[in-house]
Amino acid sequence: AGPGSPRMLRGALMAPSPQDWEQRQEEDTLLIERILLLVRNVLHVPPDPTEEQGVDGDASVHDRVLWALHISGMDDLLKFLASAQVEQQWALHVLEIISLMFRDQSPEELAALGQGQAAAEHGEDTRELESLRQRELAEKRARALQRPSRHSRFGGSYVLQGLKAIGDRDVVFHKGLHNVSA
Which GO terms describe its molecular function (predicted)? Predict the structure, then answer.
Protein backbone atom coordinates (compact mmCIF):
# COMPACT_ATOMS: atom_id res chain seq x y z
CA ALA A 1 0.00 0.00 0.00
CA GLY A 2 1.84 3.03 -1.34
CA PRO A 3 1.31 6.62 -0.26
CA GLY A 4 -1.35 7.24 -2.93
CA SER A 5 -3.24 3.99 -2.60
CA PRO A 6 -7.00 3.70 -2.02
CA ARG A 7 -6.29 1.90 1.25
CA MET A 8 -4.57 5.01 2.66
CA LEU A 9 -7.36 7.23 1.35
CA ARG A 10 -9.92 4.91 2.90
CA GLY A 11 -8.04 5.07 6.21
CA ALA A 12 -7.91 8.86 6.09
CA LEU A 13 -11.60 9.11 5.22
CA MET A 14 -13.12 6.48 7.46
CA ALA A 15 -12.96 7.93 10.95
CA PRO A 16 -13.99 5.66 13.84
CA SER A 17 -16.66 8.01 15.22
CA PRO A 18 -18.56 11.16 14.19
CA GLN A 19 -16.56 13.29 16.63
CA ASP A 20 -13.37 12.43 14.70
CA TRP A 21 -14.72 14.13 11.57
CA GLU A 22 -14.16 17.50 13.16
CA GLN A 23 -10.85 16.38 14.64
CA ARG A 24 -9.35 15.07 11.39
CA GLN A 25 -5.74 16.05 11.34
CA GLU A 26 -4.36 18.48 8.80
CA GLU A 27 -2.07 15.80 7.35
CA ASP A 28 -5.09 13.56 6.61
CA THR A 29 -6.81 16.41 4.80
CA LEU A 30 -3.68 17.08 2.75
CA LEU A 31 -3.31 13.37 1.97
CA ILE A 32 -6.90 13.16 0.70
CA GLU A 33 -6.44 16.25 -1.45
CA ARG A 34 -3.15 14.99 -2.88
CA ILE A 35 -4.62 11.60 -3.75
CA LEU A 36 -7.61 13.22 -5.47
CA LEU A 37 -5.28 15.52 -7.41
CA LEU A 38 -3.12 12.56 -8.42
CA VAL A 39 -6.15 10.66 -9.72
CA ARG A 40 -7.32 13.78 -11.56
CA ASN A 41 -3.90 14.32 -13.13
CA VAL A 42 -3.61 10.68 -14.23
CA LEU A 43 -7.03 10.83 -15.88
CA HIS A 44 -6.22 14.22 -17.42
CA VAL A 45 -3.40 12.85 -19.60
CA PRO A 46 -4.62 13.16 -23.20
CA PRO A 47 -4.79 10.05 -25.37
CA ASP A 48 -2.04 9.50 -27.93
CA PRO A 49 -3.43 7.67 -30.97
CA THR A 50 0.03 6.76 -32.25
CA GLU A 51 0.86 4.98 -29.00
CA GLU A 52 -2.48 3.20 -28.80
CA GLN A 53 -2.42 1.29 -32.05
CA GLY A 54 -4.19 -1.85 -30.98
CA VAL A 55 -6.81 -4.15 -32.38
CA ASP A 56 -10.28 -2.68 -32.91
CA GLY A 57 -12.31 -3.07 -29.75
CA ASP A 58 -9.16 -3.30 -27.63
CA ALA A 59 -9.29 -1.33 -24.38
CA SER A 60 -7.49 2.01 -24.52
CA VAL A 61 -5.03 3.13 -21.86
CA HIS A 62 -7.75 5.36 -20.41
CA ASP A 63 -10.14 2.39 -20.17
CA ARG A 64 -7.47 0.29 -18.48
CA VAL A 65 -6.81 3.07 -15.95
CA LEU A 66 -10.55 3.23 -15.22
CA TRP A 67 -10.64 -0.54 -14.78
CA ALA A 68 -7.70 -0.37 -12.35
CA LEU A 69 -9.52 2.33 -10.37
CA HIS A 70 -12.58 0.10 -10.23
CA ILE A 71 -10.62 -2.98 -9.14
CA SER A 72 -8.85 -1.01 -6.40
CA GLY A 73 -12.13 0.30 -5.00
CA MET A 74 -11.35 3.93 -5.76
CA ASP A 75 -14.69 4.35 -7.57
CA ASP A 76 -16.53 3.40 -4.37
CA LEU A 77 -14.52 5.97 -2.43
CA LEU A 78 -15.35 8.61 -5.03
CA LYS A 79 -19.04 7.75 -4.71
CA PHE A 80 -18.72 8.06 -0.95
CA LEU A 81 -17.03 11.46 -1.24
CA ALA A 82 -19.67 12.66 -3.68
CA SER A 83 -22.61 11.58 -1.53
CA ALA A 84 -21.44 12.20 2.06
CA GLN A 85 -22.72 15.47 3.47
CA VAL A 86 -19.66 15.94 5.70
CA GLU A 87 -17.32 15.58 2.71
CA GLN A 88 -18.68 18.47 0.64
CA GLN A 89 -15.27 20.11 0.54
CA TRP A 90 -14.18 17.47 -2.00
CA ALA A 91 -17.19 17.84 -4.30
CA LEU A 92 -15.43 19.82 -7.03
CA HIS A 93 -12.44 17.46 -7.08
CA VAL A 94 -14.78 14.46 -7.38
CA LEU A 95 -16.84 16.20 -10.07
CA GLU A 96 -13.74 16.89 -12.11
CA ILE A 97 -12.56 13.28 -11.74
CA ILE A 98 -15.96 11.97 -12.86
CA SER A 99 -15.99 14.28 -15.87
CA LEU A 100 -12.52 13.02 -16.81
CA MET A 101 -13.71 9.43 -16.44
CA PHE A 102 -16.32 10.06 -19.13
CA ARG A 103 -13.97 12.17 -21.26
CA ASP A 104 -13.84 9.88 -24.31
CA GLN A 105 -17.52 8.98 -24.24
CA SER A 106 -20.23 10.78 -26.18
CA PRO A 107 -23.68 11.07 -24.61
CA GLU A 108 -25.20 9.19 -27.56
CA GLU A 109 -22.86 6.23 -27.02
CA LEU A 110 -23.60 6.09 -23.30
CA ALA A 111 -27.36 6.29 -23.88
CA ALA A 112 -27.24 3.65 -26.62
CA LEU A 113 -25.17 1.36 -24.41
CA GLY A 114 -27.76 1.48 -21.64
CA GLN A 115 -30.66 0.99 -24.06
CA GLY A 116 -28.98 -1.81 -25.95
CA GLN A 117 -28.39 -3.73 -22.77
CA ALA A 118 -31.95 -3.11 -21.56
CA ALA A 119 -33.41 -4.08 -24.95
CA ALA A 120 -31.34 -7.28 -25.03
CA GLU A 121 -32.44 -8.17 -21.50
CA HIS A 122 -36.06 -7.38 -22.39
CA GLY A 123 -35.88 -9.57 -25.51
CA GLU A 124 -34.34 -12.40 -23.51
CA ASP A 125 -37.03 -12.09 -20.82
CA THR A 126 -39.75 -12.11 -23.48
CA ARG A 127 -38.34 -15.26 -25.11
CA GLU A 128 -38.07 -16.96 -21.73
CA LEU A 129 -41.65 -16.07 -20.80
CA GLU A 130 -42.93 -17.30 -24.16
CA SER A 131 -41.12 -20.64 -23.76
CA LEU A 132 -42.53 -21.02 -20.22
CA ARG A 133 -46.03 -20.23 -21.54
CA GLN A 134 -45.70 -22.84 -24.32
CA ARG A 135 -44.45 -25.44 -21.82
CA GLU A 136 -47.37 -24.70 -19.49
CA LEU A 137 -49.91 -25.08 -22.32
CA ALA A 138 -48.32 -28.39 -23.36
CA GLU A 139 -48.51 -29.69 -19.78
CA LYS A 140 -52.13 -28.59 -19.53
CA ARG A 141 -53.00 -30.47 -22.75
CA ALA A 142 -51.15 -33.57 -21.53
CA ARG A 143 -53.05 -33.52 -18.23
CA ALA A 144 -56.38 -33.15 -20.06
CA LEU A 145 -55.61 -36.23 -22.20
CA GLN A 146 -54.50 -38.34 -19.21
CA ARG A 147 -57.51 -37.54 -17.03
CA PRO A 148 -60.35 -40.06 -17.41
CA SER A 149 -63.62 -38.42 -18.29
CA ARG A 150 -66.03 -38.89 -15.43
CA HIS A 151 -69.74 -38.49 -15.83
CA SER A 152 -71.30 -35.80 -13.71
CA ARG A 153 -73.98 -36.90 -11.30
CA PHE A 154 -75.93 -33.85 -12.24
CA GLY A 155 -77.87 -34.89 -15.29
CA GLY A 156 -79.45 -31.53 -15.92
CA SER A 157 -82.94 -30.10 -15.56
CA TYR A 158 -85.98 -31.81 -16.99
CA VAL A 159 -89.55 -30.70 -17.51
CA LEU A 160 -92.20 -33.34 -16.92
CA GLN A 161 -95.04 -32.59 -19.25
CA GLY A 162 -98.48 -33.56 -18.21
CA LEU A 163 -97.67 -33.43 -14.50
CA LYS A 164 -98.77 -30.11 -13.08
CA ALA A 165 -96.92 -28.30 -10.34
CA ILE A 166 -98.19 -25.48 -8.17
CA GLY A 167 -99.51 -22.65 -10.33
CA ASP A 168 -100.60 -24.64 -13.39
CA ARG A 169 -97.08 -25.07 -14.74
CA ASP A 170 -95.26 -28.26 -15.65
CA VAL A 171 -92.99 -29.84 -13.04
CA VAL A 172 -89.27 -29.03 -13.38
CA PHE A 173 -87.04 -31.85 -12.20
CA HIS A 174 -83.37 -31.22 -11.33
CA LYS A 175 -82.05 -34.77 -11.07
CA GLY A 176 -81.00 -37.39 -13.48
CA LEU A 177 -83.96 -39.64 -14.26
CA HIS A 178 -83.31 -43.32 -13.87
CA ASN A 179 -86.85 -44.44 -14.35
CA VAL A 180 -89.13 -42.15 -16.34
CA SER A 181 -92.31 -43.73 -15.03
CA ALA A 182 -91.23 -42.95 -11.46
Answer: DNA binding
